[in-house]
Amino acid sequence: MHQAILYSFRRCPYAMRARMAIVSSGMQVILREVQLRDKPQSLRDISPKATVPVLLSADNEVIEESLDIMLWALRQSDPDAWLKDINYLLIRNNDGPFKQWLDKYKYADRYPEQTQQFYRQQGEQTLLMLEHALADSDFLSGDTITITDIAIFPFIRQFVSVETNWFKQAPYPKTRRWLDYLLASELFQTTMHKYQPWDMTNEFPALFPATTIS
């Protein structure tokens, strides 16, 4: 039986959350680490937009959206019940307005219409939403990790990395604790394993995850 193939880029937050769901599911896929400046033709052949992540299933189904890849993996195997109590409102906000403000905050020099501080303040509206969601529980949908946390976590990681000293002092202690927990988790460490960029000359497929979490 053929294995699913995942085209990924290690630092992309969309690819990151797809990989985290695959790790949680207990599945193993063939990973093709993409160089964004030199995307392989095999990726373009199955997905003309050629943005990672893209998954080619064992049944030759092409899945081009990261959230759909997460759902694909977890619907096959969800040992930690990530699919319970999904907060679609938080995920839609993350993937829509927050991602737009994140890009402007991170690359403020490309958006001189406003200051970097202005873009950060717009993004902080999402931090307030997270702080509220974490008021009575350890995670965004309750006392255990769900797909809600993992769909959002890589983008918050990116947001706070713009001004780490500011975030250390910012009035979001529950979001800080939540982020620190996920950053230190074995799940995240497994997800961020480094792979060599893939090309057609690679003799042996790279398997992801390389090892399973015990």
Automatic annotation (TrEMBL):
Residues 72-213 form the GST C-terminal domain. InterPro entries: Glutathione-S-Trfase_C-like (IPR010987), Glutathione-S-Trfase_C_sf (IPR036282), Glutathione_S-Trfase_N (IPR004045), GST_Omega/HSP26 (IPR050983), Thioredoxin-like_sf (IPR036249). Residues 2-81 form the GST N-terminal domain. PROSITE patterns: GST_CTER, GST_NTER. GO terms for cellular component: cytoplasm. This is GST N-terminal domain-containing protein. It comes from marine sediment metagenome. The lineage of its organism: unclassified sequences, metagenomes, ecological metagenomes.
